[in-house]
Amino acid sequence: MSKALRSVKGTRDLLPPQTAVWNAVEEIARRVFTSYGYGEIRTPVLESTDLFVRGVGESTDIVGKEMYTFADRKGRSLSLRPEATAAIGRAFVEHNLQELPLPVRLYCIGPFFRYERPQKGRYRQFFQIDAELLGDPGPHSDVEVILMLLRFLRELGLERLVVLINTVGDEASRLAYRAALVSYLEPYKDQLGEDSRRRLESNPLRILDSKAPAERQLLEGAPNLHDHLSPESREHFEQVLALLERFEVELEVAPQLVRGLDYYTRTVFEIVSQGLGSQDAIVGAGRYDRLIGDLGGPPTEAIGFAIGQDRLIDVLPESFRAAATASSPAMLIPIGDQAQVEGLALAERLRQAGIVVIAELSGRSVRSALKQANRRGARHAILLGEDEIARGEVTFRDLESGEQLALSTDDLVQRLKEST
Ligand code: AMP
Fold first, then answer.
1. Nearest protein CA to atom 5 of ligand 1, as residue
2. Domains in the chain and their CATH numbers?
3. How many Cβ atoms sit within 10 Å of the Cβ of residue 33?
4. Which residue of 108, 122, 268, 272 sits with most ligand 1 atoms within 8 Å of its CB, as the best mutation to test the pocket?
5. What is the pLDDT of residues 146-161, one digit of tens each?
6. DSSP β-bridge partners for residue 395
7. 0.85 exceeded by the pTM?
């Protein structure tokens, strides 16, 4: 026997009934986002590498070490998309979406790829539910985006959601802060780890994300970005906070939150779900007022979020999972050769009436077919033998109560409809 092949490291198969939970989450996302005027965008999984180098930033971990990048047969450098925003930005520019009434509201659901060390909740192919509002400087758009996100998460039954929010300022604020941070850290350069030393030159703000205890201690005395905000950035942030307070959103201002992508400006936020034993962010989000311009489009302020669908599914309440996977099909069991064909025809008729029915196709004994019905979680069995066919009836059995009775096909349809 040859050796069985396995899925690629960091990727996984999603099987039923788990996929029913994924579909239920996606349906709710579509419904909630549509109710805010969002339309779906589907961009290719493949993009030119240059898009992410320009959009996400060369010095970010994503572009620096996590992309699946390869040359195609003509030697063009392509990458599997590691995130959605840059691709949506490209599509916005490519299709002149700025000519539509602004803001343009788009959402996207699909797989993304990052070469990361696989662990629980972290995969090399993972899924995001992403939404972007393009063409409005805020602050009301910041607030609408957060309210939409919370509405969606609450509809999934998630509670105790905390929005960790910060501002990384506009271009001017960031330049001023960057200089202050570098001159603070420079004398301690020898105490920094290798990554942070590199970032001191390439992307010093990312050092604030460091988890190394020694660096964390050092950062306690670091200058605060909030002291370097331009008046406009400060006002924007204060307005966002005040508006969110009005909607009683549970907020935590997190001055160290800078997020790992270069394109963020002003508002950035993450959402964590407390009390679920997981402090990992399930959502990463922020404003990106320069990206569309950087990608060759007209200056267009925008904000968006990315929900990690894999992690989201992990923290869903059990009740949601149970409701999404509950199924109680009827099992149709033909007895004898003639009944096989009649059985297929009856099953078609039931489906036409909107009933979920699984047909027993193998001609196995009634006893073993009933066992199978139980294993499949069927609530009802419909037995169809030659006698029943002659009388234009079926034998209907409630598998929970054991009740059994003869029904005409019309009554059968009625009865099954009532019980679903
Ligand atoms: P980011 O695009 O890095 O801002 O990530 C947004 C969200 O996507 C995170 O909060 C995670 O929930 C999720 N995410 C990012 N990378 C991965 C991964 N490798 N595996 C699973 N989920 C991920």
1. 284
2. 18-170+230-321 (3.30.930.10), 327-419 (3.40.50.800)
3. 22
4. 122
5. 999 999 999 999 988 8
6. 383, 406
7. yes
